[in-house]
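User: What would this chain look like folded?
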Amino acid sequence: MKFAVRITDCGPLSFRSGRETTSPKTLEYVPGSVLMGGLAATHDLLYNDANQHDAMFFHEETSFGNLYPARFEQKRLQGEVDPIYPIPATAASCKRFPGFRSDQKNEELPHHGVRDTLIPWGLFCLCQQTRIDALEKFTTCPYPDCDHPLDRFPGFYRRRRFKATELGKASVSLGLRVRTGIDRTTGSAHQSILYSREFLQPGMTFWGAATVPDEQADRFQAFIQKANESGLLRLGNNRTRGFGRVTLAVTTIEEQDIESLRQRIQSFDAKLRAQAKQYDIQHPHALYLPITLTADAIVYDRLLRQRTGLDGDALDDLGIKGAERIYCNSSVRQVMGWNTLWRTPKADDIAITMGSTFLFGFSRNLDDDALLQRLHTLERRGIGIRQREGFGRLLVASPFHCEEDA
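Assistant: Here's the prediction, encoded as structure tokens.
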């Protein structure tokens, strides 16, 4: 069963992305691995039942996704069910007045809208980079009387399910605390040791999704309630310094059906072909669709080498044949972590970062039901390793890639 998991109240939170002692930076979301580890540790404190622990946290159907910031300026976006995703790497907005139009609060500081550049870049690659005019309108802001350059627009967004034109960017409140090191001999401040820690401000809310076996659903909800009442649940770093207190709420949600996936793919494919016809660019493939990572993905090839992107071979390993990568906008980062239960460091990995986008052309269309079914399975289960910790989540043909002026 799938649940929407929300942090409804929290103290200061800190999630260091590495083991470096000099960097004060924190992640701006709650990693799924941290959520899973915190819940598992709390479960042991409350129940001390190994069989029940394994059935809930080590079942093959169990997974805990990342929790993304869920504080929006628009009250209409403060929902409990509508998902929150990282903004794709192909999104762009005015460098001087960035932001979604529906997020605008001050008429004196208007938002000039957000546009997705995947289709223009895909067309530019299809024509062997000969038609620069396909990219011209995405070099400067098209807002009236504005000629500033477009820039990448990172962050997290939510779209209203029943009003697709309303999108909003989540706001993140950060703080910085300065601390002194403690001398282990005297128990007082250690001379010459001063360090800083960035943290997420108290009172923030976060949203994500988790899946547990159907037979564990009622027990999982009861456990969350008991964990909230006990006040034992702590997440992230610096827990001994008062960080990491959270209160969770869970709500059942429905899985996306295969027909909605079909409609998204058809909509994107039709839009790309229409623009290709407008610029007289050949589009020889039977089907075009993008894959967008909604979480970091750790993917290995057949020789156990870590991939730095997705291509036709990567999809071929998943049983999706006949794919050719046309364009990609991606990056990588090093993933490090600590296992709280075993008190040991996790293996370091190279992950393709969330928001990375890959455009593929296929030699067969959606009349092939096997292709559609495999894409649906890919979206439901994810890609790569450590999927139960939130890695590898993705969207096939995200509606965001059809945005021209959101």
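The chain has two domains: 2-71+173-252, 258-402. If you want, I can go into more detail on any region.
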